[in-house]
Amino acid sequence: MATPSHHQNPTPSTKKKKTHKNPEANFLYELNSCSKSKDLKAAISLYDSALSNNTRLNQSHFNTLLYLCSTFATDPDSKDLALRYGFRVFDHMMALNIHPNEASITSIARLSAAKGDGDYAFEMVKKLGDYQVSPRLRTYEPALFCFCQKLEAEKAYEVEEDIDKMGLSLEEPQIAALLKLSADTWRGERVYNYLHKLRRSVRWVSEETCKVLEDWFCCKASEIGSDVGSVKEAILRNGGGWHGLGWIGEGKWVVKKGNVEPNGRCCCCGEQLDCVDIDDVETEKFALSVAGLALEREVKANFREFQDWLEKNADYEAIVDGANIGLYQQNFAEGGFSVLQLDAVIKEMYTRSGNKWPLVILHNKRVRALLENPSHRKLVEEWMANGVLYTTPHGSNDDWYWLYATVKLRCLLVTNDEMRDHIFELLGSSFFLKWKERHQVRYTFLKGALKLQMPPAYSIVIQESEKGSWHVPIVCESDEESLRSWLCITRPGGCEDEGKTGSTMETCEIVNVLCCKSSENRNNEKCDDKTTSMTGKRKERSP
Q1: By the 8 A CB rule, do 511 and 503 touch?
Q2: What's the catalysed reaction (predicted)?
Q3: By Cβ atoms counted within 10 A, which residue in 133, 164, 235, 498 is the most buried?
Q4: Which secondary-structure segment (H or E) carries 463?
Q5: What residues are paired with 441 via a beta bridge?
Q6: Pairing of strands 359-363, 463-464
Q7: Are 70 and 110 within 8 A, CB to CB?
Q8: In angstroms, how far is CA 130 from the centroid of its own chain?
């Protein structure tokens, strides 16, 4: 009879107990624990023990140690220890011919900057190319911030140029640092350029960046100013909200903090803010992108016919997505295509645009069905007689037609379509959200009554006016835009309400100016919350 074997297969738990990590794995595990608990001294002790035991070290070991050292390099109590061991660890890594990666270089750059050596930090970043590794924005930050702090302007600008060459984009912290550096070294033209970089990069600024701007305009910009021609044309060409031609006007700046009314009027200076559009170049690129994609997906002859027709009929101020409106809330048993809903939108847009008919894009199959219905025929024929309808051919996608028409004619688009699929496909869609905000009109029907949500009266972005003033939105925790503070920066006499409230430049005091005050003051200072009924085309909008 067979006897039971004493060499049975071990259970999973038995396997686990018999498995021992090698020294290198144990070292990394313990190092990672130190990294998680932010225990620099324990990590250094482990490193010294590993050296004593001749533990074979790899890139992960060195990177974890470098990261911990760089983290403590700005801590006054641990700085000396972090710097001493940080550079020692890096030298050891290089001596073993272990190639650094982006994380390694970022850590050693941070250590160098903490020591005040921006040159070495930048030198390390440039050496990444030797290892076929691309730097990230964080890799450049230590050198950039170090040069900015030490007011070494030319070196900081060199770092910025290298960032640009690598195809990386500056974010608010880096732009604010360069702006402050330029202000502190009296480089007014640079300040102006960084203000525009800030405008392109963020919708609103942090409190820290706001303070940098206040300091510049209050104390250091009083001698800058010159008149520039063709400002209005530049603003229109750029889509509103900025001209980019340099400082406008002369004299000291007046700096205030205040709110903006729902209609876009600044409560500090009375100036009307713009609803900012994409510029002429972006618009043309956008139109070409839409047309190119449409010609790939549609029958070319059909879409080209529409393009030609649009060239001859370019006076429309609003495009209507007919299918989107006609099928709105029709998902019930008796639901179908609502001609009454579409007609309500057509008539409302006609009234708002000063008796100009909108263009409705609708598939020919849908139009044919409506004409065959006796109860709808007369209304549809009326639309056709007024030049309201463009019927898209069999097999076409309406979306390409109404999107192209809106972009090409730079007019409004009535639809609730979020156009997410278009964002995914379109080239250069980084400006798509700005375009949508400026052009899309949303709608609802409450108990059969139409309510349109027009584009906002103004854009919550940094704005530069024709008069040379600046309006800068500041970060706000509330979702209520009326509570957002703005930095209002003007020159004396530049705006209609200038001088009513606020501080003079000699004091550099920033005074908050509110639109809507306590109830007892509202009779004297009303907030007009009535927004513009019809935005219209850009060419007819005042900058």
Answers
A1: yes
A2: Endonucleolytic cleavage of RNA, removing 5'-extranucleotides from tRNA precursor
A3: 235
A4: strand 463-464
A5: 414
A6: unpaired
A7: yes
A8: 34
Task: Count the neighbouring beta carbons within 10 Å of the beta carbon of residue 302.
Answer: 16
**Amino acid in the structure at residue 98:** I
**Within a 10 A sphere around the Cβ of 80, how many other Cβ atoms?**
11
Pair of tokens at residue 366: 């849908």
Cβ atoms of 269 and 499 closer than 8 Å = no
Q: Are 513 and 490 in contact (CB under 8 A)?
A: no
Contact of 484 with 474, CB cutoff 8 Å: yes
DSSP H helical ranges for 185-299:
188-201, 207-219, 231-238, 280-297
**Which regions of 54-137 does DSSP assign to beta strands (E)?**
none
Instruction: Give me 331's structure tokens.
Output: 């998902």
Q: What is the DSSP letter of 524?
A: T
Q: Which domains does the chain have, with CATH numbers?
A: 170-275+456-493 (1.25.40.10), 280-453 (3.40.50.11980)
Q: List the single range of 30-44, 148-162, 242-256, 355-369 with lowest mean pLDDT.
A: 242-256
Question: 259-272 pLDDT, tens per residue?
Answer: 999 999 999 999 99
Q: Do the beta carbons of residue 401 and residue 299 sit within 8 Å?
A: no
Write out pLDDT tens, residues 357-405: 999 999 999 999 999 999 999 999 999 999 999 999 988 889 999 999 9
Alpha-carbon dihedral 498, 501, 502, 504, rounded to 10 degrees: 60
For tokens 């020692």, what's the residue?
88
Nearest to 70 by CA among 89, 55, 93: 89
Could you give the 3-state DSSP secondary structure of residue 81? helix
Tokens of 276: 């900012």
Q: How far apart are CA 147 and CA 159, in angstroms?
A: 9
d(Cα 71, Cα 65) in Å, to the nearest integer? Answer: 10
Closest CA to 175 of 154, 147, 195: 195
Residue 103 CB neighbours (<10 A): 20
Count CB-CB contacts under 10 A for residue 383: 20
